Each structure stands twice: as C-alpha cells, then as structure tokens.
Amino acid sequence: VPCRTIADVFLEAERQSVDYGVVPVENSTAGAVINTLDQFLETDLLVCAEIELPVSHNLLSKGKLAEITRVNSHPQALAQCRRWLAEHLPRASQVETPSTAAAAQMTRDPDTAAIATESASVLYDLPILVPHIEDVSTNVTRFLVIGPHQSGRTGRDRTALVFTVDDRAGALCAALSTLAKRGINLSRIESRPSRRRLWEYVFFVDLDGHPDDSDVAVALDELRQTCSFVRVLGSWPR
Amino acid sequence: VPCRTIADVFLEAERQSVDYGVVPVENSTAGAVINTLDQFLETDLLVCAEIELPVSHNLLSKGKLAEITRVNSHPQALAQCRRWLAEHLPRASQVETPSTAAAAQMTRDPDTAAIATESASVLYDLPILVPHIEDVSTNVTRFLVIGPHQSGRTGRDRTALVFTVDDRAGALCAALSTLAKRGINLSRIESRPSRRRLWEYVFFVDLDGHPDDSDVAVALDELRQTCSFVRVLGSWPR
Q1: Fewer CB within 10 Å: N-end or C-end of chain B?
Q2: Smallest Cα–Cα separation from A173: which of B210, B229, B161, B207?
Q3: Is the dihedral of CA B215, B216, B221, B227 positive or negative?
Q4: What CA–CA distance (Å, rounded) separates A199 from B188?
C-alpha cells in the first residue's frame, strides 16, 4: 500500500489497516530522516525489523545538460547529490517533490531534469542523461519496519531507544555510561529538538542487544532512574 | 553581501572578500542545519560569535486558504510549519525555494501560497493570509559568525568541536567523559555521516568554556588522545 507521506505510513500502521509500515530512518550520506525520528515521539508503534537498501541516483531529462535550469527531486535525493549538483548544475533551481518517482513524472520540458531511479526512467520515458550522480558511491538507506509488536530475542539484536536528559554537566555522559560500563555498543545517536522547551533535546540511540538480555535490562532500569523520559522504540534481529 | 547558498558564505569568507560570514546552524523546532555542519568539515574558518533570532512565519497569498494547492518556501520554513501544513493544507504540494524571500517573489497565482516574513508581504505585495503559522511559538534560529580568527577568552564562552570516535562499545561515552569529569557542560551534540566510511559518524559538540580555560585545555588534550580526529571549530562569548 503506497502512502503519500511518512506520517501516513505511521497512521495506516496505527489504524492496523496494514500489518506493518516501512519508513526510511537514515541515509549513509545525507544522515537522519528527521520526519521519521519526530514521528516516533508521537506513536506507540514499535520497530520490529530493519532493511538496508543501496540507492543510486540518475539525472533524467529530455534535454541536454547545458540546457537544464531546474532539477526536481525528493529532498533526500537532492541532499545525496549536493556536491554533484553544485559542480555540474550550480545555477539550476532545485524543486522538492514528494518522491523521486513524482519528480520523474512531472519532468517534461527539456530545460528540466529529475533525479530518480533507472526504473522511473523506463516508466516515465525519460532518458538517463547522467547515471550514478550520488556524491558517495556506497550510498545506503536504512528503513525500519514498524508494527504493533517488537521482535523476540535472537541473541544478535539491535534496540532503538529515545530519552531526554537534564540540562547539567555530564548528564548525557551519565546516561551513555549506563550502557558503556556494561560493554553495550551504540551503533548510532541522534539528537532532535524536544519541541517542548527551547534548546531542549531528545536523543535517539540504537544499541546492540535486546531488552531481554540481562545486561540490557539492568542498563535500561538504571537509565530510567537517570533520565526524565525513556522509551524503547523496539528491537529487531540484526 | 547576500550569498545564494550556505556554501557561498563559506567561500566568500575563505577568500576574505568579506570580513565575516553569517550562517544558520540550528533552529529550535526543525533542528540542525545540516548543510552548515557539513561545510565545517571542509573549511579552516573559525566560529567567532553567535546570533539568536526569533523567527515567525506567515502564509502569504493572493487567494483564499481553500484554493491553495501549492506552497512555496525554504525547506527550513516548511519544516518549522510541518504540523500546521499537515492540518490545514494536507493536499497542497510543497515546493522548496532558495529562501523565504524567493518564495514570496515567485508566488503570483491565487492557488499558490508562500511561507515568508511580514516584510516579504510588504515588499512583494502579497497579503498575509494566516499570520504566525510556526508549529512552536518560541521558534528561534541560531546563527554562527565565521571568520579567520576565534574570539579571545572572556570567562563566559562557548566552544564548538568536531570529533570522530572508534566503533567500539563506550567510545562516545569515553570521549564525553573527558568533558563530564571536569564539570564541562555540553549545550549540544549532533551526529553526521562522516562520508568516508559506511555508518561512520562525526560528532559536533558545543561546550561551555574556552580552550584557554585550564580545564578545557586539559580535556581537549585528553580528547585528542582518545579520538582519531578532533578539531576546535572556534570559541565565542556566550
């Protein structure tokens, strides 16, 4: 079931009109997908799996490179090709579209290009002007599968958390040390504005382990005593 | 001297065709301005001051709210009004523009609106359809002033750092504890992809203090021994 926005994916999964939702959470070049992180603050859905997909971008157009004055694409695709665009199309305006497919669909004039996939090139009959224009060749997007239940312990798991800390020296360090002193590895940390108080942040953390692992269970208990807010966003097999 | 992009501000300041550059680094609602963070990895310029500006957004259009099918604005403004747009204009397409002023300038048809300032309303003769549509009323953008020199110690300073840590359990915690154990407060931490290795990150940290403070100097020395890469991005009076 295709959804128009990330918020819609959460909504459909919350209504249980679908079994699971799939949302992008991070790209290896452009970084966090902030819409997805912010949605996790407003849902009871849990992460139950992750998917990594290599992503390659192509410049599609009916015109020539020298003619292009406008480039349509999804903001993540524009971000993943920022250096290429600055070098080859520094004067072209960049127009944000809901998806790379939508960008290809709306690109008709020879002075306009879309950044999109090979399959969009075929589907919308738009020649590939320049293939593989992503700034970093190992360009991978990580997606999370969200649903009503988290996955059981497999012994090789990852767990996502969100928490806030008090505004005092060492507060974040104290929170992280509850994990570090038990040898629990963090694969990722992201901060986002809490949207409640000025310059207050929430921290999104991915750790190696499962809440049913005894060391993770103890660390989470301690974290709940240290932090004003802690929520496990889900666990899944690595 | 107005510049078209954040990269251009860095470029003009590097060429010393201007004394200082001013770049947005963070908004209290939408979070980090990732283009600015990423530019700091590729420059020798130093932060020497910061500016906080309250930001209010308005929906400008010649049409009525029910007619609007397209909203033009800068991606940060769209992000800061995301909830309002989802509620009041869920079907309207969002078009990214280089600035909120450019959005107002290109908005002519009654089915199109711009998110922009009051002064853009006057300048481009575009009525304010709905004032103050930002999602969070205390909406503040923090700007950094960049130039060839950092500011001297005043006793009430802030310092920006960027560093990478090894991929092992507790590595980030060890780095942060060099600051925490000396009572040095972090006002902010952001992670960004390193763009060198898959799922490797750099961390941007703002701390309270100046490299000429003895505790900060010792902490920085220790950090340089712990981390594979550390750079002070500058210091400025709080």
Answers
A1: N
A2: B207
A3: positive
A4: 8
Q: How far is B108 from chain A (nearest CA, A)?
A: 17
Phi, psi of A146 (to 5 degrees): -115, 140
Judged by a CB distance cut-off of 8 A, whether residue A92 touches chain B is no
Q: Determine the 3-state secondary structure of B144 from DSSP.
A: strand
Residues in chain B: 238
Contact B198 A140 (CB under 8 A): yes
Contact criterion met (CB < 8 Å) for A184 and B190: no
- Inter-chain CB proximity B183 and A170 less than 8 Å: yes
- Give pLDDT, residue B53: 93
For B14-42, the pLDDT digits (tens) are 999 999 999 999 988 888 998 899 899 98
Q: Using 50, 70 and 90 to split pLDDT, how confident is the model at B158?
A: very high
Distance CA B141, CA B211 (A): 26
Nearest Cα to Cα of residue B147 among B21, B39, B25, B1: B21
Residue A138 confidence (pLDDT) = 85
Tokens in use for B61? 């259009």
Report how far residue A227's alpha carbon sits from residue A230's, in angstroms, rounded to the nearest whole number. Answer: 7
Question: Which of A7, A95, A186 is closest, CB to CB, to B86?
Answer: A7
Pick from B130, B174, B197, B8: which is nearest to A139 by CA?
Answer: B197
The percent of residues in chain A predicted with pLDDT above 90, rounded, is 72
Q: What is the pLDDT, as a whole number, of residue A166?
A: 84
Percent composition of chain B: helix, strand, coil (DSSP 3-state, to 5): 30, 35, 40
pTM, entire model: 0.83
Q: Is B54 an interface residue toward A (CB < 8 Å)?
A: no
pLDDT digit string (tens) for A165-188? 988 888 899 999 999 999 999 989
CA-to-CA distance for B2 and B12, rounded, in angstroms? 10
- Strands laid side by side in the B140-147 sheet: B31-32, B21-27, B140-147, B46-54, B229-237, B157-164, B201-208, B186-193
B128 closest CA partner among B139, B144, B142, B117: B117
From A204-218, B104-118, B185-199, the region with the lowest mean pLDDT = B185-199
The question of whether A163 is a catalytic residue gets the answer no
Interface of B with A in 138-167 (CB under 8 A): 138, 140, 167
Alpha-carbon gap: A122 to the closest alpha carbon of chain B (Å): 25
Closest-CA residue in chain B for A208? B169
Residues composing chain A = 238
